[in-house]
Amino acid sequence: MQIEKKPNFKGIENALKISPEAVIDKIKLSKLTGRGGACFPTGKKWEIASANQGEKFFIINADESEPGNFKDQYILKNNPDLIIEGLLIGCHTVNAKKGFIYIRDEYKDLIKNLQDSVNKYIKKYPQFDIEIILGAGAYVCGEETAIIESIEGFPGIPRMKPPYPGEKGFQGKPTVINNAETIAMIPLIMNNEFNPELRLFSLSGNVKKPGVYEFPLGIKLKEIMEKAEPEGKIKSIFMGASGGCLKYDPEIKVTQEAFREKNVCLGSRGIIVINENQSLIRMLKYITEFFIHESCGKCTPCREGNARILELIEKSIEKGLTKEEHERLNDLANYIKECSFCGLGMSSTTALLNILKEFKEEIKCLK
């Protein structure tokens, strides 16, 4: 697997030999985009921060609180040197004063392994400063401005954008925020070992072989399922909690474009396989409960809307919905999607909207 290659200080050494502008050009040429779901061009993000003057910071998002995702955990556990070396290259390139690694509380057992890697690199490159921050396990802190709030010691509540972190982030200074998998690609790029088509996938659910796999974009979904060995006939797949629910199509190519046509987001590629013995409405219940629990409470659509949706889902499970209640469920889902303040709320009803369209029979209605 590409992600298991050891950098052995080569990436940072190659970066220090050339100008920061040349590093950014190399990253742009690689066509690396964010691996946390947003897919923003990494070289462009670094270029924005680099163009700003004064004190800067660099943050690695290793929060990974999305249900069904554990690819970053795999890197932290098996090859943390890629993350540390990538962070040092980032700090050097944008001239950041300090780097932070924000890790969720549930991953605290990985901190010693990560800190050992930090110590090894800082011993050789003492001009850099890296601090590991342990979050409280809040899903909303996967949002870039909520991470900043948390690191500054405040509740993880998203900020209004603009300004964006690249202009005004941590302590009001220009700040780069990259996902852990994204930053792990940087040493590979500097060592000319990077394949831009490969992605990490987290596979779970009704499969015999759950785990982290590396596949090229464009692979057919059935080829991924063959590796994971499904248990029973597949009904659908959930892309984590926020990416949506896709009716199983073995021939669909796994690309952003192909999934977007089905109103499903490939996101951070956490695939939860659901077979025909499972109830999708019960899956929706669990997902809605998750979003209610993780909502920061800042905006009314997310805070109140999902609570109303849960009431309707529970009624559907117990005795069914009237026609009016079914229409209300659809209206609420669209309202929350369009009017929520941040990505957490905006994506909280994606799976529900997919099921309302593709699996109408799963939501019981009264005659």
Entry keywords:
367 residues; alpha/beta; Rossmann fold; 3 domains; 4-stranded parallel beta sheet; 15 helices; 9 strands
Q: How would you describe this protein?
A:
This protein is 44% helix and 14% strand. It has 367 residues and is α/β, with parallel strands linked by helices. It has 3 domains: 189 residues, Rossmann fold; 78 residues, Ubiquitin-like (UB roll) (Roll), CATH 3.10.20; 83 residues, NADH-ubiquinone oxidoreductase 51kDa subunit, iron-sulphur binding domain (de novo design (two linked rop proteins)). The strands form 2 sheets. Strands 6-5-9-7-8 form a 5-stranded mixed β-sheet. It is globular and about 70 Å long. The chain starts with 9 loop residues before the first helix and ends in a 9-residue tail after the last helix. The model has no long low-confidence stretch (mean pLDDT 95).
Give the end-to-end Cα distance, rounded to a whole number of Å: 54 Å
Named at the architecture level, the CATH assignment of the largest domain is: 3-Layer(aba) Sandwich
Strand content: 5-15%
Q: Into which percent range does the helicity of residues fall?
A: 40-55%
What is the CATH domain class of the largest domain? Alpha Beta
Given the C-alpha coordinates, what overall shape results?
Answer: globular
Average pLDDT? 95
Order of strands across the main sheet: 6-5-9-7-8
Count of spatially separate domains = 3
Topology summary:
Layout: H1 10-16, H2 20-30, H3 42-51, E1 57-62, H4 71-78, H5 80-94, E2 98-103, H6 111-124, E3 130-134, H7 144-151, E4 175-179, H8 180-190, E5 198-205, E6 211-216, H9 221-228, E7 234-239, E8 245-247, H10 256-261, E9 270-275, H11 280-294, H12 300-318, H13 323-339, H14 343-347, H15 350-358
Parallel strand pairs: 1-2, 1-4, 2-3, 5-9
Antiparallel strand pairs: 5-6, 7-8, 7-9
